[in-house]
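Researcher: Sequence recovery benchmark, item below. Answer with residues only.
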């Protein structure tokens, strides 16, 4: 089954790589990325237009930015029997169906760049079995029973910048205190890698892990206590609240 992509950018490229570049038809925009993928994988072809992608496959992945989505999708003619997978953030299924102009299956997903190395955890709504199987090939598909669950995972996915922002802040502080930048970078990168493995593989609750990794009265406990007392956890939940309002269309 050929998988067609409308929009060949970061996420499309990660998916194509995660799928091993088999039976893929790419839209011509994002020409450099498309050319590089076609050169790397014999199973990747670049179509002459967006419409040629839709005409040449059963399942179409919409992978353009939200700002151009309506214009791009309204210009396309889909046919009954096709299936659409949308990776477009904060854009509802009904809206996409309206732009398509046909009542066809539209499945929303949130693939992250880690799908490229087969390590993506990808929320899928509704949990269409074919689409679940597709994302299981690129890591683990997470079925969402409701759009509310899907939206909440979209909020969860928005912590990646903050994760690196915390490391950036700690590195900046260590450097300002006199540690060479390169030493701080190497140390924090290694620490983050070890913590990431624990977060993924331990069955323990995060609260339990926080306690396990904080000696009573010790340094780790102190940083999190001061962080919370100074509004750190409140600021984080404030950020999550504001993103939930945005992904549900009820905020900015
Ligand atoms: N990046 C992430 O981590 C991430 C995660 C989850 C979801 N998403 C969602 O995935 C979607 C794509 O994100 P991205 O990071 O892959 O963006 P991106 O790298 O900017 O890719 C967007 C692609 O769309 C192409 N494009 C623009 N106008 C087009 C048109 N008229 N017809 C066909 N293609 C067109 C662009 O081509 P040109 O380069 O020629 O302009 C580019 O190749 C977004 O909706 C985003 O919300 C992203």
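Model:
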């Amino acid at each position: 089954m050929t998988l067609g992509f409308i929009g060949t950018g970061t996420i499309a490229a990660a998916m194509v790589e995660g799928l091993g570049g088999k039976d893929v038809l790419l839209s011509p925009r994002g020409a450099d990325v498309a050319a590089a993928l076609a050169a790397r994988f014999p199973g990747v072809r670049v179509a002459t237009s967006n419409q040629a992608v839709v005409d040449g496959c059963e399942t179409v992945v919409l992978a353009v930015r939200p700002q151009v989505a309506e214009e791009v999708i309204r210009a396309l003619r889909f046919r009954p029997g096709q299936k659409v997978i949308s990776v477009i953030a904060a854009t509802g299924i009904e809206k996409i169906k309206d732009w398509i102009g046909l009542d066809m299956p539209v499945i929303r997903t949130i693939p992250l760049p880690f799908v490229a190395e087969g390590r993506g955890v990808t929320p899928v709504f509704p949990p269409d079995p074919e689409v679940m199987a597709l994302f299981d090939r690129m890591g683990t598909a997470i079925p969402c029973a409701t759009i509310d669950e899907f939206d909440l995972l979209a909020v969860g996915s928005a912590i990646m910048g903050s994760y690196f922002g915390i490391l950036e802040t700690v590195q900046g502080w260590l450097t300002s205190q006199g540690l060479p930048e390169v030493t701080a970078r190497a140390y924090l990168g290694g620490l983050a890698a070890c913590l990431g493995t624990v977060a993924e593989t331990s069955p323990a609750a995060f609260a339990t892990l926080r306690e396990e990794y904080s000696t009573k009265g010790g340094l780790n406990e102190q940083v999190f206590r001061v962080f919370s007392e100074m509004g750190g956890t409140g600021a984080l939940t404030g950020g999550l609240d504001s993103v939930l309002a945005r992904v549900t269309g009820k905020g900015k």
